[in-house]
């Protein structure tokens, strides 16, 4: 089975940069750990794209490992075998539901 590719929507890239910079201001090592956890989650999703919870018919969310209280929100493009990351959202925020 072919692994899926990862693409970031512009808003998701902004989310990542904002969160990374916030952690970097607290502790640069924590920011690197956050980035590593994002990469681990991306790798898992490329191998198992349907492992995450469906939040509507087109969109899924997968939590990032602790201590980071964030979910990766994404959609699958089955034709192109691509995961499109739409957002990285704090778990206390309302989920994305309008897709």
What's the CATH H-level homologous superfamily?
RelE-like
- Average predicted confidence as pLDDT: 92
Counted beta strands: 5
What name does the CATH topology carry?
YaeB-like fold
Shape: globular
CATH C-level class is Alpha Beta
Structure classification = alpha+beta
Order of adjacent strands in the largest pleated sheet: 1-5-4-3-2
Features:
2 helices; 30% strand; five-stranded mixed β-sheet; 37% helix; YaeB-like fold; alpha+beta; single chain
Can you walk through the features of this model?
This protein is α+β, with helices and mostly antiparallel strands. The protein has one domain (6-90): YaeB-like fold. Helices cover 37% and strands 30% of the residues. It has two helices and five strands; from the N terminus they run E-H-H-E-E-E-E. It has helices spanning 10-26, 28-47, and strands spanning 5-8, 53-56, 59-63, 70-77, 82-90. A five-stranded mixed sheet has the order 1-5-4-3-2. It starts with a strand and ends in a 9-residue tail after the last strand.
Short description:
The protein has 99 residues and is of the alpha+beta class. It is 37% helix and 30% strand. It has a 5-stranded mixed β-sheet.
What's the SSE blueprint?
Blueprint: E1 5-8, H1 10-26, H2 28-47, E2 53-56, E3 59-63, E4 70-77, E5 82-90
Parallel strand pairs: 1-5
Antiparallel strand pairs: 2-3, 3-4, 4-5
């Amino acid at each position: 089975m072919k692994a899926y590719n990862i693409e970031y929507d512009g808003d998701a890239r902004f989310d990542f940069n904002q969160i990374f910079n916030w952690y970097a201001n607290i502790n640069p090592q924590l920011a690197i750990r956050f980035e590593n956890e994002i990469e681990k989650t991306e790798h898992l999703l490329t191998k198992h794209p349907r492992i995450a919870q469906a939040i509507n018919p087109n969109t899924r969310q997968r939590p990032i490992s602790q201590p980071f209280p964030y979910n990766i929100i994404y959609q699958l493009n089955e034709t192109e075998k691509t995961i499109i990351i739409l957002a990285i959202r704090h778990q206390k925020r309302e989920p994305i539901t309008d897709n």
